[in-house]
Amino acid sequence: MARPNTSEVRNLSDADINEKIDGLRRELFQLRFEQATRQLANTHRFKEARIKLAQLLTVQSERQRSTAS
């Protein structure tokens, strides 16, 4: 799965960003569970999910800071 550009993430609505953040957190939980039970074959999915989550959280915090100012 390709990583979205930051500009694509910035075009998402707040609700979409929150939904994607929740989904990625669930995915990371599932990946950790699969790794603990030795069912995970593609460990690179951790890195991809963490990077996507970081992008979304960054855009979310930028928006929160801009509305607070």
Quickly count the domains. 1
CATH-defined fold name? Helix Hairpins
Which structural class do the helices and strands define?
mainly alpha
CATH class: Mainly Alpha
CATH architecture: Orthogonal Bundle
Share of β-strand residues: under 5%
Kindly state the number of beta strands.
0
- Low-confidence parts: none
Helix content: over 70%
Q: What oligomeric state do these chains adopt?
A: single chain
Termini Cα gap: 36 Å
Estimate the global geometry from the Cα principal axes: elongated
**Mean pLDDT across every amino acid position:** 91
Query: Count of DSSP helices?
Result: 3
Instruction: Output the radius of gyration.
Output: 14 Å
What does this structure look like?
InterPro entries: Ribosomal_protein_uL29, Ribosomal_uL29, Ribosomal_uL29_sf. One of its GO terms (molecular function) is structural constituent of ribosome. It holds the Pfam family Ribosomal_L29. One of its GO terms (biological process) is translation. This is Large ribosomal subunit protein uL29. This protein has 69 residues and is mainly α. The protein has one domain: Helix Hairpins (Orthogonal Bundle), CATH 1.10.287. Helices cover 77% and strands 0% of the residues. The chain has three helices and no strands. Helix 2 packs antiparallel against helix 3. The longest helix is centred in the last third of the chain and has 25 residues.
